[in-house]
Specification:
Number of strands: 13
InterPro entries: Lamin_tail_dom, Lamin_tail_dom_sf
Organism: Terrabacter carboxydivorans
Protein name: Lamin tail domain-containing protein
CATH superfamily: Lamin Tail domain
Pfam family, one: LTD
Strand content: 35-45%
Keywords: Signal
CATH architecture: Sandwich
Largest sheet: 5 strands, mixed
Helix content: under 10%
């Protein structure tokens, strides 16, 4: 989903031959999507008791990387199984993040809730899909194996 930017340095030798070498673009190794999944906390701390506190310690952070507000109304966040969170009327402010928790809670500009009574994200591996209101995939984040969280 994310594209890499490369540049080339072209130099000529005394024999008239050109030498081409890749050069890393300073500070821009990766083009970021305007709205992206920045972190998934897929394994909440402690035992999986199903308590609301434990469920809300499992979450996904979505970031607006632009300098303008973005309307996310109708956008979805889902896993491989199809557990889906749909954003109601919602605008993500410029440069801001919103955390989508698995459990129950009161929605704010910074925190949203799936309102599930069991865990969504698989500890052994899963994929988070962020889709626009039209259904186009905007970003994905995949993890495998052990651990508790992944930065995307």
């Amino acid at each position: 989903m994310r594209s890499f930017i490369t540049k080339a340095l072209v130099a000529t030798t005394g024999l008239g031959l050109a030498v081409v070498a890749p050069v890393a673009a300073a500070g821009s190794a990766q083009a970021l999507p305007a709205i992206m999944i920045s972190k998934v906390q897929y394994n909440s701390p402690g035992a999986d008791t199903g308590s609301n506190a434990s469920l809300n310690a499992e979450y996904v952070v979505i970031k607006n990387t632009t300098r303008s507000n973005r309307v996310l109304t109708g956008w979805t966040l889902r896993d491989k199984t199809g557990y889906t969170y749909r954003f109601p009327s919602f605008t993500l402010k410029a440069g801001a993040s919103v955390t989508v928790h698995t459990g129950h809670g009161t929605a704010t500009a910074a925190h949203r809730y799936y309102n599930k009574s069991w865990y969504v994200w698989n500890n052994t591996g899963d994929t988070a899909y962020l889709k626009s209101a039209s259904g186009a995939t905007v970003d994905t984040c995949t993890w495998k194996g052990s651990g508790t969280a992944t930065s995307c």
